[in-house]
Amino acid sequence: MRTVTLIKGDGIGPEISDSVVKIIEASGLKIDWDIQTAGADVAISEGTPLPQRVFESVKRNKVALKAPVTTPIAKGFRSVNVQLRKELDLYANIRPCKNIPGIETCFNNVDLVVVRENTEDLYAGIERMIDSDTAESIKLITRKASEKICKFAFDYAVENGRCEVCAVTKANIMKMSDGLFLESYRSVAENYPQISKREILVDNLCMQLVQNPSKFDVLVLPNLYGDIVSDLTAGLIGGLGVAQGANIGENYAVFEPVHGSALDLKGLNKANPTALLLSAVEMLKYIGENSYADKIKHALFKTFSQSIKTVDLGGSATTTEFTEKVIDNL
Ligand code: NAI
């Protein structure tokens, strides 16, 4: 039986984790979940929100499914997510965004993939107070990490039958940092004559995405733009409740939804487990369980086609009811 680390997170994390574990179990696939806690409660009980045992578990099992973890805003401990991605060198954050049958949105032709650099940029956390009224954050971009993520994006395009990789920057203003990212993109792109190239400024991209998202295929972005743009693209297909993601490195992979811990829904039995479930489907494919992945995805889409939806999608199903319907449809 395959062992997979499960980080249940906090906020809605435990509720959607339980839903996904139940659905996978009902599909007939046996997974040995190595359950690891992390986040604010752990910070109180163990003195750190991300104890060494969590890293050790992912290193042992190589693969993890992770629900969201709250990060204190403008104070407190450093993001568990950022630490995990950095320490395990999960350098590529892949966030596919494709219309889901049965979920009506403004567009019916969205099929793009956000490939976000996951280890540096303003997320490197290099910041300080220069004096009590002046703060400074450093935007760190290296050629090594930029080339690595651009190569990942082009390889992804080749392996997944994609036609174009578009580099997204603000290199007109940040001529050195985003300029270096763009230069890296251009040098990597030369090795992929079969893939179309495009360069776009991030503000223009946002405008074009909300007007005509079908114009885009694979997007490769530095960390911060990737984070923001992938919430925007989530909105194109029904919102954060359905937006899946994966953090991939050379040795480890952590699958997690785009969304956060949605504290406004905590304990209300209203959270949509779809984003975590679709992330789990990709995790199952990653460990070679393709038939179970397909079975679960089919049951999920069938549930939507029966107009059974959680509140975020305009429906009335609770997390529990939605989970039971997906299980019925397996
Ligand atoms: P959020 O993604 O948690 O929520 C934004 C909005 O989307 C809320 O209205 C929420 O109710 C809704 N939403 C999100 N997921 C949903 C789901 N599965 N079903 C139904 N509705 C859903 O973003 P927010 O509020 O900005 O962040 C909350 C906390 O989560 C913060 O501490 C933030 O740092 C953390 N966070 C963690 C992430 C992770 O663990 N990977 C990613 C993003 C944020």
Quick rundown:
The protein is of the alpha/beta class and 330 residues long. It has eleven helices and twelve strands. Helices cover 40% and strands 18% of the residues.
Instruction: Determine the N-to-C terminus distance.
Output: 21 Å
Helix-strand pattern? EHEHHEHEEEEHEHEHEHEEHHH
Query: Which percent range fits the helix content?
Result: 40-55%
Given as residue ranges, the uncertain stretches (5+ residues, pLDDT < 50) are none
| Count of individual helical segments | 11
**Quaternary status of these chains?**
single chain
Largest sheet: 10 strands, mixed
Give the names of the bound compounds: 1,4-dihydronicotinamide adenine dinucleotide
Shape: globular
Helices and strands, with pairings:
Blueprint: E1 2-7, H1 13-26, E2 31-36, H2 40-46, H3 52-61, E3 63-66, H4 80-87, E4 92-98, E5 111-117, E6 127-131, E7 134-137, H5 143-159, E8 164-169, H6 177-189, E9 196-201, H7 202-211, E10 218-221, H8 223-236, E11 246-248, E12 253-255, H9 274-286, H10 290-305, H11 319-328
Parallel strand pairs: 1-2, 1-3, 3-12, 5-10, 8-9, 8-10
Antiparallel strand pairs: 4-5, 4-11, 6-7, 11-12
This protein binds 1,4-dihydronicotinamide adenine dinucleotide.
Residues 12, 68-71, 81, 240-241, 256, 259-265, 271-272, 275, 312 line the site of 1,4-dihydronicotinamide adenine dinucleotide.
Search tags:
single chain; 330 residues; alpha/beta; ten-stranded mixed β-sheet; two-stranded antiparallel sheet; 11 helices; globular; binds 1,4-dihydronicotinamide adenine dinucleotide
